[in-house]
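Ticket reopened. Same input as before:
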Amino acid sequence: MGVVVPLEEDRGRGHNAVAQLQALVAAEMEAVNEFIRERMASEVPMVPELASHLINSGGKRLRPMLTIASSRMCGYTGKDHIKLAATVEFLHTATLLHDDVVDESDLRRGKRTARTIWGNQASVLVGDFLLGRAFKLMVETKSLRALEIISDAASIIAEGEVMQLAAAKDTGTTEDAYLRVISAKTAALFAAATEIGAVISGRNGSEAAALESYGRNLGIAFQLVDDALDYGGRAASLGKNVGDDFREGKITLPVVLAFRRGTAEERAFWQRTLQEGNRQDGDLEKAVEFMQRHSALEDTTSRARHYGAIAIDALAIFPESEYRDALTLLVEFCINRNH
Amino acid sequence: MGVVVPLEEDRGRGHNAVAQLQALVAAEMEAVNEFIRERMASEVPMVPELASHLINSGGKRLRPMLTIASSRMCGYTGKDHIKLAATVEFLHTATLLHDDVVDESDLRRGKRTARTIWGNQASVLVGDFLLGRAFKLMVETKSLRALEIISDAASIIAEGEVMQLAAAKDTGTTEDAYLRVISAKTAALFAAATEIGAVISGRNGSEAAALESYGRNLGIAFQLVDDALDYGGRAASLGKNVGDDFREGKITLPVVLAFRRGTAEERAFWQRTLQEGNRQDGDLEKAVEFMQRHSALEDTTSRARHYGAIAIDALAIFPESEYRDALTLLVEFCINRNH
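Engineering reply: fixed in the latest deploy. New output:
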């Protein structure tokens, strides 16, 4: 039992991995996209303008794909997975809008953030609108257990963000404390997205638990790889869209590792640049150099691989299917992606 | 049929009016408060600290009282009205937190706003946390219709705020346009708070419609009186906590009326102070003087009285009861209050 997936670097295969999932759920994702367009409509023009800026910004729609694939793997044949997938994407988009305000971000995926175009005020309010719509959508499915899971996730995500705010700028953050933050702020929504796939299929026992575990561990792996990519990834190549976390003074796992493994002089560098927020030209390059010296990016990816392996094992209780294969390969994609 | 309530100024009676409602629901409101304290708990200390700053800031808890009284008037004997009342208060508190960020307010009811103590970032995130908790709480009641009503209200409130943002600073705003804004941003939550009282009592037909109408019209009246009080009320006495709307450049009904009725010179004043945001010492006093000259505050209160009368008539289909009396008198309180 269990598919053995070697997780060494292979970007070509990683790409095929997500393509396989995308092909499997393509028709349903088209329905999800249609639904999203329909439900972000408002007679107040700024609402769909701003919402569509982010929703159409070329994200992979990873989270709604997870809901579709999870429910199909559980044998679901109804229509509510479309609504729940749209709910998950709305919740994610609302979180991004508020995150950009909280982090004062000017760029996301190399594009101007909504707040730089429409302002912080509109970003906060349209985020609230999308949260309201997300709840409205999921109420329509009448699945109280799914409602419970998603509303729980919504609180936990916000709690994780506050936790990060409180821990922000503290270079002494432990790896455990950082994991608690990302379990809440990132992995909780992945876990909800997959667990509800089991729940609407009437699989509330070990299958719901397995999918919850799959989503949670995949989410942690995904975030850790994101953290490494923000410094150029394992290859540490400083391409575009790199350095956002550094410029925002965020403490992520690569920093936690580089700080702990660093010399007194290096620690002083991290304190100056992130704790005190005093950054100069050339500091980003120096940060990457220190990370490479201590294998911080490589080891962040190794940690991601650890959580990825747990996610794959969680799926082993499901009978073999193209959905299970695609979800398994997706873990590889998340770890080996370079963007 | 119908209780005749003369709505002329009588602050003493207005005060008794809310005291009567408070006495009727005192025990249940104690349970609501207990519930709120319990459910705003979090292992992240900043969350309850910030939430309790606002929740314990001495508001009248008008909205949750409406849910309790409405359900009891419909003969409800269960326990879920406590949870729904707490949901309504959480939603209201989340909205206030985000409003203060959007409006850049430093004071609320004469006290420092959460954002001036904990910052905008924490206010946005704790608002999101409270929204998540609100949904979690109402899911526990398993009333899908109540869930639908409240999630709908959550979207509409945010839409109303965006509408206000888009119309902000436009002194040419019509009274109709302004009413659309407050119907969404204020009255939608009042309407939801009262309608769910009927819904959980199994009164989905004309009683739910009556309570929805009561709440909506009471909410509009409440907001209009608030707008007048922000310039000192009908008496136009510039006490403390006055002038917030003016300082934030908000277009409210007193401004709409004073602008439309004003001379060219007065219109230029409103444009300079609110549209262009160029305010000087003495401008607030001048604004109040112009409003008095055109009976703008008095007429704002008259408009409020109109909506209050509709709210009272909406209740007429209910058999006489102490709850109906208290809800009727509450309209008078909302209109005649001086704070």
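Chain A has a mean pLDDT of 90. Chain A has one domain: 11-336. Please confirm and we'll close it.
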